[in-house]
Sequence to fold (260 residues):
Amino acid sequence: MKVAIGGPLKVAFRPWVEGLENIPAEGPAILASNHLSFSDSFFLPAVLDRKVTFIAKAEYFTTPGVKGRLTAAFFKGVGQLPVDRSGARGAGEAAIKSGLDVLERGELFGIYPEGTRSPDGRLYRGKPGGLARVALASGAPVIPVAMIDTEKIQPPGKVMPKLMRPGIRIGEPLDFSRYQGMEHDRFVLRAVTDEVMYEIMKLSGQEYVDIYATAAKRQLSEAAKAEKAAKAEKAAGAAAAKTEPAAATAEKDKPGTSAS
Fold:
């Protein structure tokens, strides 16, 4: 897949990269990245010599039919692991186990601490359950990564990408060995996650928002529904205002109706 997809990606988009020397030549490491676009999981592996394994929702691997089989083969080929996200706790445990399995093999594990794509290009609060627990349980270094402008190439909902140069900044590895054995302490998990998010913010230059991206998406969805309802109500009011004079005129023009 690095040849079939990575090569053409690099030729077509010419991504620029800073900090490649921070990726270890061998051994386990966690790549913690911001998440702007669906294409993030392709651009990052494309510029690295080593394989990066991400996790993906199980639906990509279980959809029936020819299209489903092709999709499953594609995601397996680019190093994605299926995780059942039907239950919040179950999904988190599955993601942690998948990450630990990858790291135990001495490989690179990629994770998006925000948990989902940014809805507006800003950086949102990291979820501590996955990243921090995997880092502390494995002892692997965490390497912060910033994807730059990938949301402009393929915004959410757009199929055809725009040809432009994205960027990737890779920070220095973070060592959390001082917290070894404390992966069940929620305050430690929060501290580890916030430290990683701070490094990502410095690399990306994004505005930081101290709420979860899922909450932000919910707020945006509710605001869009409210705006749509307000427009519909305004349109109905305008239509009613036009109808009233016409109805009054029709009543006046009825046979047998005369002005007093």
User: Anything to note?
Assistant: The chain has a mean pLDDT of 85. The longest helix spans residues 213-252.
